Amino acid sequence: MNDWHELGLTPDSPPRWVNGPRLDAVRRIVEDAPGIVASVPYRVSLRWLFYRLLQDGYFEGIKTKADSYRWFLNTVRRPAVYSGYWPPDMVTDEGRNPIIREGWKSPGDWLDHQIENMSCSLDSNIDQEYYVMLAFEANAMADQFRFYTEGYSVTLWPFGGDPSIPYKFRLARWIKRISRKFGLPALILYFGDLDPKGSQIPESAFYRIHRWCAEPFKAYRIGLNPGDEVRFDIPEQPDKPGAYQWEALNDDAAREIVVGALEQVFDDETLAETRELSDEFSAKAQNALAEGIGRRIRRPK
């Protein structure tokens, strides 16, 4: 270790405010943005926050949306974080995820966790007409899709732009396996940007996936579709006039599109029966394990 170069000792010089932001427009965004982020129950991206500010008129006087976005990044966001006004994790990272391998502190901690979290996770697609999955272009909005599909427990496939060849082949193999396991035709609901690239990505991907998959399946584009930009009053992409991003949707619109599609393909009564059976056997398994090892667990009343 003695000949290794130690990192993090050279000071950086990020943009900071000594006495806070001087411009009223900057100060207003700095004060209001945390509340906007906290107004939805899931993590959001920086671009999502920008679109909310744009729709609420925070960038009046700036000529173009592209200029607004650059001004927002350089004049507001970076100094707001480095000056301590915004927490560094106020918005999500848009593509980087650590590989964490954290173990348990003791065997007892592990055992308590297993008892309390033992769950009979029955698939929500049981006895439904299709085996439903979701795919979407905006990888940065994965938490939004995770939140609005929680009650359906469907598998999510974030594309993050053009999916790679291995990723498409993996999805093809998954469709084959899951279709045969449950004896149901697979149905994939897709959500992407409204622009030429956003239209090409799923067409190209699913054309190839169809040819690699030994089981028939259907994939449908749910949104964004032509007309959605008017229906939901979506602002244009800052640097691409005539293009509309999924992240530009407000929370109510995103929920309407995602949940509305799921409500059309799931039978609510069948889904409720599956959830009830899952809860029943989860409780039985927890109590059986606790009694078998001489531990008692507290059940919520």
| % residues in beta strands | 5-15%
CATH topology of the domain at 131-266: Dna Topoisomerase Vi A Subunit, Chain: A, domain 2
Look at the structure and give the CATH class of the domain at 131-266: Alpha Beta
Coarse morphology: globular
* CATH A-level architecture of the domain at 131-266: 3-Layer(aba) Sandwich
Largest sheet entry: 4 strands, parallel
Number of helices: 10
End-to-end separation in angstroms reads: 55 Å
What integer is the average pLDDT? Answer: 89
Strand order of the largest sheet: 2-1-3-4
As residue ranges, the low-confidence spans are: none
Order of helices and strands: HHHHEHEHEHEHHH
Structure class: alpha/beta
Task: Calculate Rg over CA atoms.
Answer: 24 Å
Q: What is the number of strand segments? A: 4
Structure notes:
Among the domains are: about 25-80; about 130-265, Dna Topoisomerase Vi A Subunit, Chain: A, domain 2 (3-Layer(aba) Sandwich). About 45% of the residues lie in helices and about 10% in strands. It has ten helices and four strands. The protein has a four-stranded parallel β-sheet with strand order 2-1-3-4, with helices on both faces. Strand 3 (about 185-190), helix 7 and strand 4 (about 215-225) form a beta-alpha-beta unit. The radius of gyration is 24 Å and the shape is globular. The model has no long low-confidence stretch (mean pLDDT about 90).
